[in-house]
What we know:
13 helices; 7-stranded parallel beta sheet; Rossmann fold
Amino acid sequence: MPVRVLVTRRFPDIAARLLKEAKLDVTEWQEERLMTVAELVTGARKHNAVLCTLTERIDKEFLQQCRHLQIISQFGVGYDNINVAEATALGIPVGNTPGVLTDATADLAFTLMLSVARKTFHLHKSILKGEWKYFQPTRDLGLELKGKTLGIFGMGRIGVEMALRCKGAYGMNVVYHNAKRNEANEALTGARYVTFAELLTTSDVISVHSVLNSETRGIFNKAAFYWMKPTAIFINTARGAIHNESDLTEALRSKKIWGAGLDVTNPEPMLPGNPLLSMENVAVLPHVGSGTLEARTEMARLAATNVIEFYRSGKVPHCVNPEVLRSRS
């Protein structure tokens, strides 16, 4: 009986092609909408493997109903939508696609920083509204970034690339905060490790690149924004739940901070009436950090390869719970 793989989205063609070339039986979700929870469960019950992405809720309830699954492969580096502990308890390996979206996401964080500093989203909308009438020397002024201090929250691969871009383009000083100090990345970037409190008070730009967990959830809240500079820019391209959106909105309204650039929101998608969308110092994008042809194609290849190699050799090249594989050997 052939191995059956449920692909929950229309991913780049390379994913299905590689799976089919490996003689796996592939079912691709074709509708232009998300699968409901019931549809996901029903579909997964008929398959041996699932290739999914972060909007699929692979929680304890799902896993209990689909405990027969042999592997779950995530199209993405983050996997906070998956209850990895439960998958591990059930002996289900979970794969992801690290590394390949690093440059694309760092580029987007850099883009958001520039967009907020120069109010580009707001100014573009003002043209559409017919508000560009004549030169006004004191209107819609932005901020310059040369020589300013960049604060990285989460100095992993993407944080390093953001730091290098900012140092190279603007000679920015770089400080960072992690759960623990990373001396290797300090050597790469010249960054200085600081406490979270110092990150807040010294940074002109804070760019979030951490994972979402119990320690980081909601860490950028009313208290955090209070301690930031009134000229500070907040950038988040990691996960929306790392910042408290209502607290961020109020911090911007009350001018506790100067601006914000978001590729991630909470919830997603953001409602079109959200007040952040009408603020002149705010730039919001619809979670497209990995949205380049190169990054998405490579993500699809890695996600498919995780499944193929599992059935070919018993190994998952990029596995977030490798103890499951060790217990099998």
